[in-house]
Specification:
With 304 residues, the chain is an alpha/beta fold. It folds into two domains: 234 residues, no CATH class; 61 residues, no CATH class. It has 13 helices and seven strands. A five-stranded mixed sheet has the order 1-4-5-6-7, sandwiched between helices. A two-stranded antiparallel ribbon has the order 2-3. Helix 9 crosses helix 10 and helix 10 packs antiparallel against helix 11. The protein starts with a helix and ends with a helix.
Length: 304
């Protein structure tokens, strides 16, 4: 669990990545926050339950001090599943940060800004985005209940023009989730990746795409690599090792599918699904690998 937590936070903890994310989300891409103005803040805080002290921990937190001496604490929370209690969690983190300010008499007071990065691409964030939505509040009591809004960023639903404002590697992370939501396929960039190992660690944890897990084992420190070379070229390299198996799969598929008047659409679908499962290929790669007839290809793809 500790290793997972570290991998999940490492990429976003880089000052250049953190500053870029904040600039795009909070300042429409203007370079307001500079990496050299950020300092790490201990993400842990404590609270008491039944007389016992317990710990809570943000994913990433940094203190920002710009040239005008304004201070702000920025927090980032990674979230791959919708969480209806998120407003309660965020108010706990932010409240602990403000409590620390009260305890430190020598420090200037500063605001706290927390951003929740939601990486789900199958469903939108339809759970509470503010404290009041977590409860059923009687109408007459509602005016007296203080509210607290949270900033949820649905990464997979960001507009393309906003994603383009991110610098790599977070732009590539956002592109992956956006493309998977819209097309169920990922088309890797040919741009060299910065912080490649950390990005692959994060993607391996956030997705079910086994290519990221396999690829991160082959990334060497300091080596210049593109997302295409990391993922697609790796598949092509494996192709030679799998050539025999793929050839047999293709021959079997052709034999079955062409046995009776070139076979049936159902047979091609079954064969494509089998090769997708065994070789971790996309639907498009599978139909090409087993040479599905062009007149049937669109119908087969619809069912994969």
């Amino acid at each position: 669990m500790a290793e997972k937590d570290i991998a999940e936070k490492q990429l976003l903890s880089y000052a250049d990545v953190f500053a870029n994310i904040m600039n795009v989300i909070l300042f429409q891409g203007d370079e307001v926050v500079h990496p050299e103005e950020l300092t790490d803040v201990l993400p842990q805080s404590t609270y008491k339950v039944d007389g016992k002290l317990r710990q809570q921990e943000r994913d990433v937190a940094k203190l920002w001090k710009n040239s005008e001496l304004r201070l702000a604490l920025f927090g980032i929370e990674n979230q791959s599943a919708v969480d209806r209690t998120m407003p309660l969690r965020i108010i706990g983190y932010d409240g602990a940060a403000y409590r620390n300010e009260l305890n430190d008499k020598n420090e200037k007071m500063y605001p706290v800004v927390t951003v929740v990065l939601y990486f789900g691409c199958e469903q939108r964030w339809k759970k509470p985005r503010c404290l009041k939505d977590c409860f059923q509040i009687p109408e007459r009591l509602n005016p007296y209940v203080s509210d607290y809004h949270i900033n949820v960023i649905e990464v997979a639903w960001l507009p393309d023009e906003m994603i383009a404002k991110f610098s790599n590697p977070f732009r590539m992370v956002a592109e992956y989730f956006s493309q998977m939501r819209k097309d169920q396929e990922y088309h890797p960039s040919e741009e060299a990746v910065r912080h490649a190992k950390e990005m692959l660690d994060l993607m391996a944890l956030l997705t079910d795409d086994v290519r990221f897990t396999e690829a991160k084992e082959n990334v060497k420190e300091g080596e210049s690599m593109t997302m295409r070379s990391i993922l697609l070229d790796k598949i092509e390299a494996r192709g030679e090792a799998r050539g025999e198996a793929r050839g047999e799969a293709r021959g079997e598929a052709r034999g079955e599918a062409r046995g009776e008047a070139r076979g049936t659409e159902k047979t091609w679908v079954a064969s494509a699904r089998n090769i997708m499962k065994n070789m971790q290929l996309t639907a498009q790669q599978a139909v090409e690998a087993i040479s599905v007839p062009m007149d049937l290809r669109a119908k087969v793809l619809e069912q994969l």
